[in-house]
Amino acid sequence: MTDVKCGAQGGRRLLRTALCIACAALLIGCAMPKPKMPKISFKMPRVHKITVQQGNVITQEMIDRLKPGMTREQVAFVMGEPVVRNTFNQDRWDYIYTIEAPGRFTDEKRVTLHFENDLLSSFTGDYAPSSTQNSEAAEADGT
User: Fold this and answer.
1) What is the mean pLDDT of residues 123-142?
2) Burial letters for 35-71: b for 16+ Cβ neighbours within 10 Å, e otherwise?
3) In CATH, what class is 52-141?
């Protein structure tokens, strides 16, 4: 019976000694100075992120071509059909264009067209008719 007790105590002593040596090695490793490594000007390749465009492309030229009194077909020819139609108000067309270049920029443009009796009555949004168009119209009128 005494042999069994000695074997158990010897195993514990061996385990305790191994733990002490492991802890000492870890502590000594933290205190050692780091070796100087040469700097390499190598950049890791990154994942390619694509530019995402959604909605109808809206340009200033399109807005300049819109005139009050245009029919829905004429507006659709100039602006294209809206991607999403308002099911509750058929006299309102919303054009939304977003572009996202990951890590660089995100841009969103909106234009809302309002119709009365199937004719364009007004529009609102991020664009307005350009001043060059207004000055050309004034010159044609002679004012």
Assistant:
1) 65
2) eeeeeeeeeeeeeeeeeeeebbebeeebbbbbeeebe
3) alpha beta
